[in-house]
Amino acid sequence: MSELSTLPAPVRGEAATRRHDPLGVLRTVASRLGTALLVLLCTATVAFFLVRLSGDPVKVLLPPDATAGQESALRHSLGLDRPLLTQYLDYLWGIPRFDFGDSLFYNQPVRAVLADRVPATLLLAAGALVVTLVVALPAGILAAMRRGRATDRTVMTGVLLGQSTPPFWIGILFILVFAVGLHALPASGYGTFANLVLPAVTLAVYSVAVVARLLRSSLIDVLSSDHIRTARAKGFGPFKVVLRHGLRNASLPVVTVVGLEVGSLLGGAILTEQVFSWPGVGQLTIEAISNRDFPLVQATVLLFAATFVVVNLLVDLSYSFLDPRVRTSR
User: Fold this and answer.
1) DSSP letter (8 states) at residue 251
2) CB-based contact 238:145 (threshold 8 Å)
3) DSSP code, position 183
4) Res 220: pLDDT
5) What count of other Cβ atoms lies within 10 Å of the Cβ of residue 95?
6) How far apart are alpha carbons 144 and 327 in whole angstroms?
7) Mean pLDDT on 42-56
8) Distance separating alpha carbons of residues 93 and 35, to the nearest angstrom
9) What torsion, rounded to 10 degrees, do the Cα atoms 26, 28, 33, 36 define?
10) For a tag site, which of 123, 234, 292, 308 has the least CB within 10 Å?
């Protein structure tokens, strides 16, 4: 029996109508896109003005004994002596064209600097996502099936530790144990599978805890429903009941939070990359802030914000298509 058939007749009729209403779908997409663009505009504005409170980048780029004339000449060549409003409007005009200006520190287009670092961050996030799914899904299922038993208590203890422990501390602990103590894995570096293991696991710890806890809660609710009791009465084994009947109905909120965690993995890579000297966008952001590289800081902040916005948008739209009850409320 589909989820749509379980709804009351008026709601079921409205859901069926909206499912075949292309204008309704387009309105939903347009509304979400409008909200996403507004969020990106606000993020770009805040990043532009806040980064200028960090100080004058000319002081960092020139030696301490530079003269006032040298500072003035460099400030003019970088365009920092123009009115602030002019700089802001030029910055906004360049965003749709993916023109973020030139990096003050690397002396090359920001777009090129980001292109060199983005693959490393994507690789790290992909590795962390694989670890999250491989560990969290079985842990959440076992905890729900063994509710109140030792397995459940063990999983929930791990969830509590994973959600309450700072990722950078976990990374340092992994380095001390596996790199310094056991000499099993490298403490830093990039380019091999061994280099990926520790940072990927470190980045995945929090996401594993979130997904496992949500899956456990969703499965516990589903396993107490009538259709699960009917399946058990027919003689189905516990794993068959969970995998064939329970997991599908409990997967919608899990799909949502997994999608959101993808954005968190990309945005949360800053500290992890710093701990393991991983040459990604996170480490680049720290360097740009230290060097007061205004264009590069603005671009990295906007990149992280755009990642979150796009992932949230896709999850929101996919959730609307997966669950008809969501469409009826919009």
Assistant:
1) H
2) yes
3) -
4) 79
5) 16
6) 29
7) 89
8) 19
9) -170
10) 234
3-class DSSP state of 48: helix
Contact 251, 219 (CB under 8 A): no
Residue 47 to residue 148: CA distance in whole angstroms: 47
Locate tokens 């064939």: which residue? Answer: 244
Q: Report the amino acid identity of residue 222.
A: V
Q: Are the CB atoms for 210 and 258 separated by under 8 Å?
A: no
pLDDT(3) > 90 = no
> pLDDT value at position 35?
86
pLDDT at 269 over 80: no
Give the CA count within 13 Å in the CB-facing half-sphere of 294: 24
DSSP structural state of residue 6: G
Please name which of 281, 265, 306, 271 lies closest in space to residue 118, comparing C-alpha atoms: 281
3-state class of 79 per DSSP? Answer: coil
- Tell me the C-alpha distance between 178 and 211, whole Å: 26
Nearest alpha-carbon partner for 95 in 241, 249, 248, 301: 301
For residue 129, count other CB atoms closer than 10 A to its CB: 19
Task: Give me the mean pLDDT over the 19-28 stretch.
Answer: 64
User: How far is the C-alpha of 129 from the C-alpha of 165, rounded, in Å?
Assistant: 19
CB 302 within 8 A of CB 39: no
Tokens coding 217? 């809660």
| DSSP β-bridge partners for residue 102 | 109
Helix axes 193-223, 150-164, angle to 10 degrees: 120
| Interatomic CA distance for residues 162 and 156, integer angstroms | 10
Task: Tell me the CA distances in angstroms from 21 to 16, 30, 96, 207, 330, one per residue in order.
Answer: 9, 14, 31, 36, 13
Within 13 A of 32's CA, how many CA atoms are on the CB side?
18
Count of helices and strands (H, E) across the chain? 16, 0
Beta partners for residue 109, in sequence order: 102
